[in-house]
Amino acid sequence: MASQRPLKAAVFGKKEVFLPNFVLTLLRTPNIPPNFATFLVPLSLNKLDLRDYLFHAYGIRVHGVRSYIQMQKIQQDKPGAKRPKPRKWFRPKSIKKMMVEMERPFVWPEEPKEYDMWDKKTYDAANKDREIQQDQFRPDARQKPSKERESIAEQAQALLQGKESWKTTPASNEWNEGEEEIEVETDVELPKTGA
Questions:
Q1: Taking CA atoms, which of 38, 106, 109, 153 is between 20 and 30 Å from 90?
Q2: Helices H, strands E: what count in the chain?
């Protein structure tokens, strides 16, 4: 009679993760081979945690993990501040990326060609309006020409090219020629209040 031996457990994956309190974001990276995947992970997550999570949650065996911490650019003032403070420097939180080499390849589905189902036009219009609003409150906003200044420049170009003719402002004695003078100020009686 053959003795039954228990199947050998995986060498890794001893750490049990029941309800993870972190978010992993799978990035679409079309330039790398299909057996590699790139994730945005929290700074506290290490290579062993990611490998255990992928094995226990999705049954994906991982051959290797590479991690990279990307520092963000220095900005003036914190994002979302009510009043931007110039020359108050702030560095946003760093981003940690991890690339895993998987046992089996993963192929992304094709990107949709029509976005009508998700109302992309409204989303793009809202993003454009938000960017215009943010540009008005940046510290260097006064250095850029305003829309009124751009319209004046267009009018000047039209004059120089001869598309429009110059109209002179009437002299002060030409404003009311042949018209009666109109009294602008009138006496108004206000009602008395109080006792």
A1: 38
A2: 3, 6
